[in-house]
Amino acid sequence: LGLRIAFVGFSSLLPASFYAGPNNAGTQPATPALIAAGVRRARRKADVVIATFHWGVERATREDARQRAFAQIALDGGADAVIGAHPHVLQPIELRGRHRLVAYSLGNFVFGASSPATARTGILRLKLSARGVEGHRLVPALIEGARPRL
Length: 150
Description:
CATH class: Alpha Beta
Radius of gyration: 15 Å
CATH superfamily: Metallo-dependent phosphatases
Largest sheet: 5 strands, mixed
Structural class: alpha/beta
CATH topology: Purple Acid Phosphatase, chain A, domain 2
Order of helices and strands: EHEHEEEHEEE
Strand content: 35-45%
């Protein structure tokens, strides 16, 4: 029948007015309690959980302590993969254990590039099973004219 894949998303960067509330739609704030609860809730209904984050420092080529902490909270809650965005540059991809992965930032995709670093990007291909991430490959791409070129 196939895998049930859940995506949960969090943001640590937007103004509070963008966040979802009891009576309004919006983004989910990235707080330790909300990350843990959101991932656990998704884990109960899915074979694979992918947590996405809008986080990090623009143009930083390494993840920061907050990104590492939030990724660990998501993994501890049951996420199989953590995928981040916002820095506009590629950041490390790490395997955590046998079947879990963290990609801190995949760079830009359909977005203008203002430097060679912001032009480098990639498509993350994941091989998934009920055990989690069985394999991965970053397909390199370059941003030209605000579009990716493989």
